[in-house]
Amino acid sequence: MFERFTKGARTAVVLAQEEARELGHTTIGTEHLLLALTSDEQSGVATLLREAGADRQHVRDAIVRHVGDHTTEAAALADRDAEDAAALKAIGIDLEAVRAAIEENFGAGSLRLPHPAPKKRGIFGRFSAGSGHIPFSPRAKKVLELSLREALRLKHNYIAREHILLGILREGQGLAMLVLTELGADPAKLRADLAGSLESRAA
């Protein structure tokens, strides 16, 4: 399936991971796919979404309202780690020196937990946006699978951003769909507009 994705669609999927990471979320949901589709304001899909009332800022605000912005929690954990290291140092324990001594005796990386055996990788393991892989939610995986079905239904041999949005609309139950509904988007009109956009692409 991956090889069918256009450059724009691949970019949108990678951006979805970045959007989830920036919000401090632990999974990539349908909402992150929607937010990624609004990111390239020059794309036809972003234009259709903007005309439907779902521009980037409104979508992001709705996601934060429903799920929250957890970036401050991640920053707080990092601050707590630094405080713990400083407290240990104050009583004569240099955490970095302890780590160095353990690695010297037991080998580099000995403090890291072992990685679980790799699972069979499907399409979703092949998209990566750098370090700190964030998994797709089952619903987001379903949307990407439905984007393929939408492409096949339309007899297209590629998957574009439009197909991803059609997948969101076809799945119909995720947070992305709730956000679109709250912002006043008409799913039937969006479907028709997407079909028109794909027809003009093929012409």
TrEMBL record:
Keywords: Repeat. Signal peptide: none annotated. Residues 2-201 form the Clp R domain. It comes from the Bacteria. It holds the Pfam family Clp_N. The keyword Magnesium does not apply. This is ClpA/ClpB-like protein. It comes from Actinoplanes lutulentus. The lineage of its organism: Bacteria, Bacillati, Actinomycetota, Actinomycetes, Micromonosporales.
